[in-house]
Amino acid sequence: MNLANALTISRIISVPVIVLLLFHDSINTSVIAAVLFLAATITDFLDGYFARKYQMESDLGKLLDPLADKLLIVSVLIMLIPLGRVPAWIAVIIIGRELAVTGLRSIASEKHIIIQANWLGKYKTAFECTAIIPLLIHYPIYGIQFQLAGEYFLWIALFFSLWSGFDYIYSYARQTIT
Q1: Measured between alpha carbons, how far apart are the two ends of the chain, in Å?
Q2: pLDDT grade, residue 178 (50/70/90)?
Q3: CATH fold of 3-177, please?
């Protein structure tokens, strides 16, 4: 166990806490859930930073980091559907893309093909997180329409989700044809 893996595990532990907060929908629980989500998002950047800077990269970290990312995003998106904060069809596309890319990378790995993560996936993740925080808050506070802001960024996240998904498919196809 090292610092990078501990940060990743803290992100996994935050998921059920955020889910429980969303079961008790109120302005207070929504803001707390958003703050926890933001903290979890920050740990995603920090665990990678510490792992690279201090040579803490491990097989456990390589397994847990993407798992923690997907658990966090997917769980929150699913929980926001019955609250009316995220349309189900958008959640299905974003989650479906995650599953498809994970499966494609697994198939590629078996064929010794490496599909590198690129800036499209980083933009996708950044816009997903930027959308989810105001969608979690949802309630207008000090005249700020958090739901509207979240929806705006969710559309951008959807765009990058589709674009990066097609880019992964194209990258895989290009490497298998040549």
Answers
A1: 41
A2: low
A3: Four Helix Bundle (Hemerythrin (Met), subunit A) (1.20.120)
